[in-house]
Amino acid sequence: MLLKKNNHLLPRLIIKNWQDKGGKIYSKNNNDYSEISYLDFSSKYYYSLGLKDDNLENRISKFEARIGNVIKKIKESSKAVLLTGKELELLKLFCVLSACRQHNTSPVILNDESGIYSNNNYILGVPLVKTQRKAVDATSKIIDEFERINTLPNDSMFENWSPAMNSNTTNSLLALGQHLSIIKSSSNNIMISDICAIIECTMDSDYLYTYVPISPCIALLLVKSEYYQTREDFESTKERFGRKYGNGNKDPFISTIFQNDESALLNNSYRRKLLVTNVPSEIDVPRYNSAFLSIHECDKTIFEMFNSIVYEDGKKIVYCSENDLELSRRKLQDRYISWDVG
């Protein structure tokens, strides 16, 4: 059997969602436009560090085939999607894989004159991988976790919060203390590039979430639950950050990108209250073997900000609308922290 020498850093199952909507590629280096092809966003023997070996690539392919069915459920849903606990945990792990399988993930904050901001200065959260070797090491660990979880019974119980030292938990420690949110756009204006994911932290290096686009109108968010598990947690965090970093006043928002709609980051999973009503009711789901996930529609300006990062840091930009491509050329100024000396 022929070796798979072309390793995709951005999965074909994701790229195809743009291809199916007539998406095209703009190359910043060549200043030209082209159709999407099979070899786009691939690198020869990336996952074997240049050696002629496709073992890890084949293991990744099995994960992608499994997660493809879950993503199909999301694409076919409008307001909410019912997933098993196992599917939820695999989807969370897919977000970690999307950010760590290559060294192209971008932070929201790109430059800080003060030197206070520092990526990866956190314990719980998706790490920002910066070298190919670290990406391959991380990917191998992620696939180990996929293979473990995939063998569990389909009705296995999971928890949104799992103690870090609890070795008996079914949850993956790689997504510890994080929940999943699904956001969508009313149009096909989401863009991707060789920047496959985006991580936002606060200026004080508090990890917030990882953004992973999966189609021209849908994206996943892997969110730090300590800050966004409930509305109460969110309001408490704003007060605590205000006391810790500001002048004692409650912070108006935590996320720069979502400052006008941080409800998108809240844990929107819920269970149906049986024998009470046919309408789903939002309740806390600490343990679950299945749950509904609300699909939150966001204003297009949020995706325009993400697109700006995708364009600025990427080399090959995938888009559906020329207008969206043009808008993405404008730099997001919140990425550059400056201090005026008066």
Give the secondary structure arrangement, pairings included:
Blueprint: E1 6-8, H1 12-19, E2 24-27, E3 32-35, E4 42-44, H2 55-75, E5 80-84, H3 85-100, E6 106-107, E7 111-112, H4 132-150, E8 158-159, E9 178-184, E10 198-201, E11 207-215, E12 218-224, H5 225-228, H6 231-245, E13 269-270, E14 287-288, E15 290-297, H7 300-313, E16 316-319, H8 322-328, E17 336-337
Parallel strand pairs: 6-10, 7-17, 9-15
Antiparallel strand pairs: 1-4, 2-3, 2-16, 5-15, 8-14, 9-12, 10-11, 11-12, 13-15
Helix pairs in contact: 2-3, 2-4, 3-4, 7-8
How would you sum up this structure, described in words?
The protein contains eight helices and 17 strands. The protein is α+β, with helices and mostly antiparallel strands and about 350 residues long. The strands form five sheets. Strands 5, 6, 9, 10, 11, 12, 13 and 15 form an eight-stranded mixed beta sheet that branches. Helix 2 packs across helix 3 (about 85-100), helix 2 crosses helix 4 (about 130-150) and helix 3 runs antiparallel to helix 4 (about 130-150). The chain has one domain (about 20-35, about 75-330).
Short description:
This protein is an alpha+beta fold and 342 residues long.
Shape verdict: globular
How many individual helices?
A: 8
Q: Number of DSSP strands?
A: 17
Spans of at least 5 consecutive residues whose pLDDT stays below 50 are: none
Element-by-element helix/strand order: EHEEEHEHEEHEEEEEHHEEEHEHE
Q: Number of folding domains?
A: 1
Strand content: 15-25%
Key terms for this structure?
single chain, alpha+beta, 30% helix, eight-stranded mixed beta sheet, 8 helices, 342 residues
